[in-house]
Specification:
The chain is built from 6 helices and 22 strands. It is an alpha+beta fold. The N terminus is likely disordered.
Length: 491
């Protein structure tokens, strides 16, 4: 029986209501359009993007601790008794303050003796100079006596010549019997006397010349003695300065403005230069690594404190002096202090592959104490990094890949990545297809690369045809890296 006939038949009202409901359901079901499955021959629709330069901001941070700008352990220079100590732990000291005094009485006596020796040697120089003056006068006197002897020799030499002529003339006159022989004899006696006087004058010249040589030698010796005396003064003064320096070590000074953080000094301790204070407890702080050398004092400079951050290798080239940094101190309710990078080690640690960066934090009120737990971070900006959205990458077997658009088909290509900020990732190199199974070739990524992106990347197959969409690619909002990301943190 047809549905209309059933509805108009004489049946009970309940049956007619049921029949009307069935008829309505059949009518609704017939009015729906049938859905068809998508065709597998249709290429997937994807977007194409190009790597473009961006500034990727990263945050390199790690736990650290506060260190004082300087820290000095003060030891004794010599073996001595500790006569007096002037400061204790927690005391503030100024540069040059005497923190302790040592007692070595024999050293002071040696210094006084050497100072007296310097005075004596200076007097020896003065005496040697006087000897030079005396020797110089003696040389001048000897020269005068030599000149006098030479003049006497000339006088007698002239007399000898005159009497020789006279004797020769008288001898002729005697032969002619003009002059008596007695006169000739007297002239010959005068000649002989002058000859003897001339010989004596010659001998006197030799003597005076020898005396002059002796006086000149004495003068030279006196001048040498002056030089020796002066050298002795220099040696004595040098030795006195050396002892004065040693005496200066009897006082231990504060090297700079700071705070005393450790004291091992006690009155009349016997301190040693190699081991410091032997009476210090073997578990006392600030001992040397071999647990043997105990400093008398440890002083720290706290007007500036420093925090260390070890920067990973990939960020090392982008850290420089003046880079923005932040320091958080747990002791001050996790308060962040603005700062900048003060210095970098430039070289990397061969074991950790990190570069040490130091942050100096002014501490004029000395509120920040050395040893406090801190957290330091440095803002690293990688500029002009050719980047794509992270969604454009796929991963398999520990490697990263992109799908390149090549004449309407998708080509999976292995790539090397650089830095990332959680949204964007830098592409550095892509793998080249070569016939060699041993050597691999890589090419730098350029902004001309055609990279596919979209929701259907996971369904792509190598060489599959794809269709490009006119819709804007995801994450291509045109904002800068600083505006789109706060940066990722590397610990």
């Amino acid at each position: 029986m047809r549905t209309a006939e059933l509805l108009h038949s004489r049946q009970c009202p309940t049956c007619r209501a049921v029949l009307w409901g069935l008829a309505l359901l059949v009518t609704v079901g017939c009015s729906k359009e049938e859905k068809t499955a998508p065709s597998v021959s249709e290429p997937p629709v994807l977007q194409m993007i190009h790597p473009r330069p961006r500034t990727i901001v990263r945050v390199v941070g790690q736990p650290s601790f506060v260190q004082s700008y300087e820290r000095t352990s003060i030891y004794a220079k010599m073996t001595a008794y500790l006569d007096r100590w002037n400061v204790d732990i927690g005391d503030t000291v100024r540069k040059g303050d005497v923190v302790a005094e040592l007692f070595v009485p024999e050293l002071r006596e040696q210094w006084e003796t050497k100072k007296a020796a310097v005075i004596l040697d200076k007097e020896q120089v003065r005496f040697a100079k006087k000897e030079v003056e005396v020797a110089s006068a003696q040389v001048k006197a000897a020269q005068a006596r030599l000149e006098e002897a030479k003049s006497i020799l000339g006088k007698y030499d002239a007399e000898v010549k005159r009497w020789k002529v006279q004797v020769s003339r008288l001898a002729r006159e005697v032969d002619r019997q003009v002059v008596a022989p007695q006169i000739l004899l007297e002239s010959e006696n005068e000649l002989n006397a002058d000859v003897a006087a001339r010989d004596a004058a010659t001998a006197a010249i030799v003597k005076r010349a020898a005396e002059l040589l002796a006086d000149e030698a004495a003068l030279a010796r006196a001048e040498v003695n002056v030089g020796v005396a002066r050298a002795r003064v220099l040696v004595a003064e040098s030795e006195a300065k050396r002892l004065e320096a040693w005496v200066g070590y009897l006082k231990l000074f504060a090297p700079y403005d700071g705070v005393v953080v450790a004291r091992n000094a006690n009155t009349w301790d016997f301190v040693l230069p190699q081991t410091g204070d032997p009476s210090a407890e073997n578990r006392a702080p600030h001992l040397s690594p071999n647990r043997e050398a105990a400093p008398i004092y440890v002083i720290e400079r706290t007007d500036i404190v420093r925090i260390y951050v070890d920067v990973p290798e990939r960020d090392a080239d982008h850290i420089h002096i003046g880079s923005d940094a932040r320091v958080k101190l747990w002791a001050y309710k996790d308060k962040w202090f603005p700062a900048t990078v003060t210095r970098i080690s430039w070289a990397l640690n061969a074991k950790s592959r990190t570069m040490r960066a130091e942050i100096d934090l002014p501490n004029p009120e000395t509120q920040v104490r050395p040893g406090m737990y801190a957290y330091g971070k440095i803002i690293v900006k990688h500029r002009d990094a050719l980047s794509v959205p992270k969604s454009a990458l796929t991963h398999a077997g520990g490697k990263s890949f992109i799908w390149r658009y090549d004449n309407g088909r998708a080509r999976r290509t292995e790539i090397h990545t650089g830095v990332e900020d959680g949204k964007w990732i830098e592409l550095t190199n892509r793998h080249l297809d070569t016939k060699s199974a041993i050597e691999e070739e890589w090419a730098p990524i350029t902004s001309a690369e055609k990279v596919l992106t979209g929701s259907k990347l996971s369904t792509l197959m190598e060489g599959q045809r794809v269709k490009l969409s006119d819709k804007p690619p995801p994450n291509e909002d045109g904002d800068t890296a600083e505006e789109t990301s706060e940066g990722t943190e590397s610990e």
